[in-house]
Amino acid sequence: MMGLGYIGLPTAALIAGKKTIVNGVDVNPSVVDTINQGKVHIVEPDLEEAVSMAVQEGFLHASLEPQEAEAYLIVVPTPFKEKNEPDISYVEAATKAILPLLKEGDLYIIESTSPIGTTEKMRNLIFGSRPELEGKIYMAYCPERVLPGNVMHELVHNDRVIGGIDQESTTKAVDFYSNYVVGELHHTNAKTAEMCKLVENSSRDVQIAFANELSLICDKAGVNVWELIKLANKHPRVNILQPGCGVGGHCIAVDPYFIVSDYPMESKIIGTAREINNYKSFWCAEKVQTEKLNFELKHGYKPKVALMGLAFKPNIDDLRESPAKYIVQKVLQNANNEEYFIVEPNIDSHNVFKLTDYKTAYEKADIIVYLVAHNEFKDLPRDKNKMIIDFCGVLEKN
Ligand code: SAJ
């Protein structure tokens, strides 16, 4: 297992749990040490138990260098270079690391979200330096589709799309996953599987952009967007998602760019959706500043503002690409930080922000800004004397 992050480690634990010996490889020595102690570096329900058992029973061992195996899974990050271009250098590096170990009959699978054509590129890389392996090893792409917070369940139960560089590779990879996955395994080719992953997340991004666009229109029109969407969704063929303060996380806010950067002329809706969702975060930050000023003009004193939530979505502790965090940063720029309370009930402390307990912040603030619809916030009392700015429908969900 090349990469022991949010997907690699749970997958390694799952496979090891079926009594298959897994060598987990990561470039980070502290990750390797942590896992070999049966511990984890990621917050994910049920993961620690699975890793601890797999390590104790001797089926999972982590190291900095790969060892010879029959199947190699590439589960490393594919981040962005400047100008929103995908960077597949980790996939390349992981592939180069196993290159000397590959032998006839081996299976090579990429799970990392990748630009269309990456499996083909890795085929050229492998056979370019090991031509004797051409037609002798199996290569496939099989994207992960799990939702953070529900990874251990979804790894087993979600359907998988599996695309080989040829029929034999697809069949071999399907056989491999059938040992661990009870969801349906769908056969295709590598390029379609690569694109399928990007399209799934782009589709969700476009749908959220539609909801966010509605929220901007409704703000001007004086219509409650939450009620509007609830009513529109009563139509049997309409299913609008929820607006929020933007789209975050390391998948939906990123993957559409993999398409846009390669097909800029053709991917107009996908590109525009990204712009709308990014703009929504900027708009929210501006709105907080404007409403704070309005309050001051009306009441004659500077209000205290509670910024409620930093995570990228409800009930998690993950702040990566978080629109809430972006809004907090933007609002605090050139502001008097004493006037703000920053709240994130899912983390104890933060290296930049001084956090306040959510109940204290609610009590002391004049303006409450809901940035993330965490469950805790829904149970707070409804104090009519406070100004509430609800970007994510906390008040609608009770
Ligand atoms: N969001 C909204 N409105 C909504 C739904 C979500 O604003 O109605 C926002 C969330 O607050 C968050 C962002 O979108 O900021 C993304 O959250 P999410 O729950 O939609 O998705 P992720 O990023 O946690 O996981 C997604 C999933 N993909 C799809 O649902 C198509 C997951 O299945 C993928 O495996 C994952 O991306 C991934 O790793 O690619």
TrEMBL record:
Belongs to the UDP-glucose/GDP-mannose dehydrogenase family. Keywords: NAD, Oxidoreductase. Residues 306-397 form the UDP-glucose/GDP-mannose dehydrogenase C-terminal domain. It comes from Flagellimonas pacifica. One of its GO terms (biological process) is polysaccharide biosynthetic process. NCBIfam families: NDP-sugDHase, PRK11064.1. One of its GO terms (molecular function) is NAD binding. This is UDP-N-acetyl-D-mannosaminuronic acid dehydrogenase.
